[in-house]
Amino acid sequence: MKLLKSLLLLTFFLGVALASSNKRTLVLLSNVSSKDNYSKYFKSLKDLGYSLDIRGHLDKTLKLEEYGTYNYNNLILFTPEAEAFGGSINLESIIGFVDAGNNVVLAASPSSSPLIRKLSSELGIELKDKETRVYDYFNTVNLDDNSEDPSRIYSSEFVKSNLILGNEPLNPVLYSGTAATILSNSELAVVALSAAPTAFSQKHDAIEVVGRANALVAVVQMRNNARALVSGSLDLFSNAYFSTLVPSSFDRTALVPSGNRAFCAAVTNWVFQGAGVLRLGLARHRILPSSETVDGLGNSDAASRNAGEESPATYVVGQEVEFTVEIFKKESATTPSTDDKSIDVLDENRYVPVVDRLEGLQLEYTMLSPFIRLPLEPRGDGTFFLRFKVPDVYGVFKYEIAYNRVGLSRLQLQLQVPVRPYKHDEYERFLTCAGPYYASAASSIVAFLALGWAFLITSRAARRNKEKGGKEEKLRKKRQWNK
Fold this sequence. Notes:
The chain is α+β, with helices and mostly antiparallel strands and 483 residues long. Helices cover 24% and strands 31% of the residues. The protein contains eight helices and 30 strands. The strands form nine sheets. Strands 2-1-5-6-17-16-13-10 form an eight-stranded mixed sheet, with helices on one face. Strands 20, 22, 23, 26 and 27 form a five-stranded antiparallel sheet that branches. Strands 25-24-28-29 form a four-stranded antiparallel sheet, with no helix packed on it. A hairpin with a 5-residue loop joins β22 (320-336) and β23 (342-353). The longest helix is centred in the C-terminal third of the chain and has 48 residues, at 435-482.
């Protein structure tokens, strides 16, 4: 009995360790002793199930990768002025860390070092020049001594995405630092928090960018679905800013706790793959039997060959086919926190089918350019499908899904299925619609036979008449000669 209990406990702790290993997070600070300044932020991450390893950025034992395996899934860099990192960590290793599908949170400042600026640029976010700060004389919060500081601003210009920020309304976020500029046509970067319209970024006496063009917090989802966050303020994550009162978004005369804690927890959770994570399952395609065709008329005899076969190597022009693909999402389980509030903790090992429609999810059947582009419809069991008729053009075609929506993982799929013409023995032997052509051919044959018969008969009669006339002429000449 004791052995059984011991095995059960061992299995439980191994399961806990395995689950937590999927959320291993390395936190690098300029000074380890400053970790208490961000304890509320770290606690919110622990409440979400993340395991934190807090180190100094010059620790000589630092290793992101060991024996070809990454020791962490996430990296937090609270080192805005770091000129180098300890151990085996450098710019190249961090970029490789992201290229492997892992995630990074980077906090910068107006005095960020060239290393941090270069890293931000590699992540797709360009910070403003050194010593550039964001100011706003209309949305400021006084310091403890009631002195005004126009660089200590608040903003409620959030990205419109519940996947990134959660479903709860957020109070204005307190901020002090620099900004970045994100191009409006950027496919990878999204501004999670921008400055108010009255804000501006200034370096010394030169005003550079005005209004919402100042990106305070930006998030990036790479093409390999790795995610990154770049903030122009380290104070954004501090305990002091978490507990500061700011004017309400609805009544500027009323003071409410800043939204920093909820905002930082929500956006970090999204960056760490805690929300909006999709995964493609098995993709199938088949030739429809006659009873299931789109127009109900059925495939032709040639097109019906191999009907019902799963994932055939090729199609024949004009066949009616069905494509299906499974799509799953990570499930969040609601668990109580120490503050008597429910929080969503992501189950790293559990995916559930997507039963609702995904807006904008389309399937393309393309050869150089799309011949078919239609939406995929859900069946309610995690399977999305589309039925269509193969184009009457043969060549190397491929199925393609390229789904990219703010807050959701990218879905990429390419599946090559060529289209061939009919073989010589696959053409129909009789077509009802070709009746006029059949009649024309038959009438030509009948006319040819009738003309030949008439020609033969008339030519024989003429030859007989000619022979008869010749004999009569000889008799006439013979009689004249006798006389």
